[in-house]
């Protein structure tokens, strides 16, 4: 079964213009075309498009995604390069996740802070808290008064 750009875009939950852009950038060498040049996506193209979307969503550049796709098209002799690229991207994603976890912890602290301030009716109530008054997980964020 073949799908049009619009049908495949709908299936992927992306805009048809995204698929056209990917094609223009050389990311879709696996997509067949009709005699009149219309893109004809197959079910097997869905897996290719999913990896492209995954790599893009992890922050990989279109240029690097093209290199990855080209290596895939070259065959098994490029497995080591592909593995190295995926490993490097995984490290970058893990670093981003760690940073986001730190941001999330700060948001949790600020939520606790403002919930506590709201209950007290003022932020002033939090100025002179002792460490035992602040959940331990938030100690690194809360500015305790030095005595």
Summarize the structure.
The protein has helices at residues 5-12, 16-24, 45-57, 62-74, 79-120, and strands at residues 2-3, 32-33, 39-42.
Key phrases:
mainly alpha; 3-stranded antiparallel β-sheet; elongated; 147 residues; Multidrug-efflux Transporter Regulator, Chain: A, Domain 2; 58% helix; single chain
Structural commentary:
This protein has 147 residues and is mostly helical. The chain folds into two domains: 2-74, Multidrug-efflux Transporter Regulator, Chain: A, Domain 2, CATH 1.10.1660.10; 79-147, no CATH class. Helices cover 58% and strands 5% of the residues. The protein has five helices and three strands. It has a three-stranded antiparallel beta sheet. Strand 2 (32-33) and strand 3 form a beta hairpin. Helix 1 packs across helix 2. The N and C termini lie far apart (75 Å).
Set out the fold topology.
Blueprint: E1 2-3, H1 5-12, H2 16-24, E2 32-33, E3 39-42, H3 45-57, H4 62-74, H5 79-120
Output the number of helix runs: 5
Order of helices and strands: EHHEEHHH
Q: Could you say how many structural domains there are in total?
A: 2
Radius of gyration: 25 Å
CATH class of the largest domain: Mainly Alpha
Shape: elongated
CATH topology of the largest domain: Multidrug-efflux Transporter Regulator, Chain: A, Domain 2
Architecture of the largest domain, CATH level 2? Orthogonal Bundle
The secondary-structure class comes to mainly alpha
């Amino acid at each position: 079964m073949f799908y049009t750009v619009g049908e495949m875009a709908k299936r992927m939950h992306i805009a048809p213009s995204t698929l056209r852009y990917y094609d223009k950038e050389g990311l879709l060498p696996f997509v067949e075309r009709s005699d009149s040049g219309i893109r004809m996506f197959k079910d097997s193209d869905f897996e290719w498009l999913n990896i492209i979307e995954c790599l893009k969503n992890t922050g990989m550049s279109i240029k690097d995604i093209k290199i990855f796709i080209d290596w895939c098209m070259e065959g098994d002799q490029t497995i080591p390069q592909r593995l190295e690229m995926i490993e490097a991207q995984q490290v970058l994603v893990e670093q981003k996740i760690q940073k986001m976890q730190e941001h999330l912890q700060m948001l949790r602290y600020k939520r606790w802070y403002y919930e506590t301030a709201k209950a007290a009716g003022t932020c002033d109530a939090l100025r002179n808290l002792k460490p035992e008054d602040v959940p331990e997980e938030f100690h690194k964020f809360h500015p305790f008064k030095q005595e």
